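Lab notebook: predicted structure, single chain.

Context: the supervisor wants predicted structures on file for every construct in the current expression panel, including those that have not yet been purified. This is the next one on the list. No modifications to the sequence; it matches the entry in the shared construct table.
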Amino acid sequence: MKRTVAPTGELPHRETKIPGTRTRERSDSKVEGHSSMGRLLSAAMRKKTLTGTWRTMQPRRSLSSIRSRLLLFVSVCAGAPLVLAQGPQATPSILAPVSTPAHEIYGLSLFVLLITGAIFAVVAGLMIFVIFKFRARESDPEHEPAQIYGSVQVELAWTVIPVLIVVVLFLTTARIIFAIQDAAKPKSALEVTVIGHQFWWEFRYPRLGIVTANELHVPVSTPHQPEPTFLQLLSADVDHSFWVPQLAGKTDLIPNHPNQMWIDPQTTGLYLGQCAQFCGIEHAKMLIRVYVDTPQQFDAWVKNQQQPGAQADTPDAAVDAGRHIFETEACVNCHTIVGTAAKGTFGPDLTHLMSRATIAAGGAANTPQNLRAWIQDPNTFKPGALMPAMQLSDRQIDEVVAYLSTLH
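Prediction complete. Output recorded below exactly as produced.
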């Protein structure tokens, strides 16, 4: 180490030679007015030995303790959802998967969380350590420390390590994507065609001859009796996205571009989702309800849906009048009721309207009061809905509601 003689009244400038680095002399006249950052770096440089190597600041057992605590923290954060979220959730959540695709996505998310959490903990921990360890003190000399420019080892480390992390994340994600998309369809799989409309869902079961809306029924899948459901996704107008977080990831419905996805829910219950692609003013109320039934429940539902629209056995003047109004007004141009003259396809199939728990694509409970309000003015529940108000009298609306209430 050599010492440069400074003019009287000025502090000497120290030049330190570090293996693998380059140093540059600075004019001693620039020492005055240095910021606190210079003092902080000066304190750090004073910790160096004559050979230029860094002294060990903390015992190794402290670093091991930090790593152990970090892994414990990430594990607790990652494992908590497994304990807190079980079965159907009132609010859609990716943290309670019940289907193979959702389990794969959930596992990938935990893997990414572990890696990014470790990176955050290391970077934040080192930053906090340096800030406190090398903070400015009154006893620090106010001269500029040696300036270091370039280190091949450091530059390689902060280039190669991030690249390796990105490659690992990319390969892991690609493996999950291909594993889900390339899954073979067994012969026993249930096939459903999903058609997105503004702003409701149409579900068609080609092999079963069933057409329904907004509420999808599928059988539960078990290891002893696997019953996967394969969905073909179509759009009748604009882009939509089918997303039930507990069952699978998002898959878009694009006009003239069929897509496919599959689910194999392993727990019975109701699972909620919605359109995840902005498709118009009522996009937020384009909800999805997936009922995972036991084999007996699903068979009973299929048997009921394959029947024509059931009506009351006892004659009712209001019901007859409501059916007459429905078949003579513009309702038949948009809706279908099997067994009647109504064969429209623009709106939802109403053959078994009262077997559904909601109307307006999950916008309201399926009650006579809500049904009446919907017919009178659809904007009551969904402003911007494409169904027009039919301008019927109160009596006519009551009669139409009486008729629709018989469609179980």
